[in-house]
Amino acid sequence: MIFIKTPQEIEEFKVAGSLSKAVLRRAGRMVRPGVTTREIDQVVESFIRLHGATPGFKGLYGFPASICASVNEEIVHGIPSERVLVDGDIISIDTGATIGGWVGDNAWTFYVGTPSVEWQGLCEVTLDCLKAGIAQAVPGNHIGDIGFAVQSLAERHGYGVVREYVGHGVGHVMHEDPNVPNFGKRGRGVRLQVGMVIAIEPMITLGTYKNHTLANGWTVVTNDGSPAAHYENTVAITKDGPVILTQDGEGPWCPFQGGI
Q1: Regarding beta strands 167-169 and 228-230, do their DSSP bridges make them parallel or antiparallel, or are they unpaired?
Q2: Contact criterion met (CB below 8 Å) for 85 and 112
Q3: Is 259 domain-assigned?
Q4: Phi and psi dihedrals of 61, rounded to 5?
């Protein structure tokens, strides 16, 4: 069932969205060689609770942490650990905060030091895929228009588009209808209506899009060990076009580097 939000509810939603972007920026500031993913998670959880919110991810379906920390070949759902980040890594951090009854959800792929030009290119195109998807989030379009925009751009650059993990509706809970795939055909799928709120989140790989889940039951990795990038914003469909709810006073886009 798709829940339509009123203009007032979308205004309320912006509080969770703004805090969630601030949380992501706080995580990004810690990204540098020598830091562990567990350290980032601990700071993020403290930051969220300090602002009177609860981590959107911790305990969700049993997930043990406040961020998903997916490094290099890890696509999504990386569990924070004692893994030390090293120069040349990329790390996708997915996190969010719940406050006022609304859930914010966003993700970003950060550079650890200076990754290769090839890996940076993957990140830049994946961010462009996110922007292309958001541009299609207008009343009267279809979910397939978003997926087509993401898929066509990624594949034009020779990248893989993950099929098994998709965007989704967001509201009082993290995952609502409809699913928002990163692939599709124009004019297909659910028609977008004013008041829908969706998370658009391209997950793009340098090599194969085929993947598997590690023995921990969570972390999804590429089958060929190639790196993956992941960007996400929570977006409201309005009569004036898409409104990014996960933005704060510093704007909707995070820098790539950890030093925000």
Answers
A1: unpaired
A2: yes
A3: no
A4: 55, 20
Cis status of the peptide bond prior to 7, with omega within 30 of 0:
no
Helix axes 37-50, 7-29, angle to 10 degrees: 140
pLDDT in tens, 217-249: 999 999 999 999 999 999 999 999 999 999 987
> What is the per-residue pLDDT across 157-173, written as a single tens digit (0 to 9) for each?
999 999 999 999 999 99
CATH of the domain at 139: 3.90.230.10
First to last CA, the chain: 38
Name the residue range of residue 66's domain.
7-244
Measured distance CA(109)–CA(76) in Å, rounded? 11
CA 78 to chain CA centroid, Å, is 13
Residue 255 pLDDT more than 80?
A: no
Residue 254 lies in a domain: no
Question: How many domains is the chain partitioned into structurally?
Answer: 1
Residue 75 CA to residue 2 CA, distance in Å, equals: 27
d(CA 161, CA 126): 10
Q: Give the integer Cα–Cα distance in Å for 24 and 60.
A: 18
Backbone angles phi and psi of 176, in degrees to 5: -125, 170
Q: What are phi and psi of 81, to 5 degrees?
A: -155, -165
197 in Cβ contact with 237 (< 8 Å): yes
